[in-house]
Amino acid sequence: MTVDRREPPDQGSELDILTGFLDFHRQTLAMKCADLTPRQLATRSVEPSSLSLLGLVRHLAEVERNWFRSTLMGEEAAPLYYSDDDPDGDFDAVDPATVTQADVDQTFATWRAETAYGDARIAEAESLEVLALGGRTKRSLRWILVHLVEEYSRHNGHADLLRERIDGRTGE
């Protein structure tokens, strides 16, 4: 998989900067997962953690889905990979012994669909001051974008360590 990772802009509107950093971090996650087998993508960090690269992609698909569909748009958007009975299903249900290329392809297709949905909602927004229609607290689109950059940044740190454990690849 080739990843076209673009640096965020040095100048521009606040929206350009925020979406530039969000895209950069999305692309960083894809880059950390590039050229790995299903088994490698499902490799866990260290016991007892169930953290894996594929689990991170599933988790971030859920994060995008929650913030853009459920919170920003106020839609009923049931979780895809976890439940009340299995709150860590996005990570726990990834088994290196049984994961297939079809599982990987479906996970990445889902993540890309959720990021595309979010991008479309951002493009439609009148401003960064648009308030979420759902959620307990009415957050602005600005707040959601800053939070997503933070979420991806933190998890890309995990992805760095996971990738290094798998094949020694380090760096951005």
Task: Write a structural description.
There is one protein chain. The protein has about 170 residues and is mainly alpha-helical. Helix content is about 60%, strand content about 0%. It is built from 6 helices and no strands. It has helices at about 15-35, 40, 55-70, 90, 100-125, 140-165. Helix 3 (about 55-70) packs parallel to helix 5 (about 100-125) and helix 3 (about 55-70) packs antiparallel against helix 6 (about 140-165). The chain is globular. The mean pLDDT is about 95.
Q: Which properties best describe this structure?
A:
globular, 172 residues, 58% helix, mainly alpha
Short description:
The protein is mostly helical and 172 residues long.
Describe the protein's topology.
Elements: H1 14-33, H2 38-41, H3 53-72, H4 89-92, H5 101-124, H6 141-167
Radius of gyration, rounded? 16 Å
Q: Outline the biggest β-sheet.
A: none
User: What fraction of the residues are assigned to beta strands by DSSP?
Assistant: under 5%
Report the average pLDDT across residues.
Answer: 94
Globally, the shape reads: globular
Structural class: mainly alpha
Helix content, binned percent:
55-70%
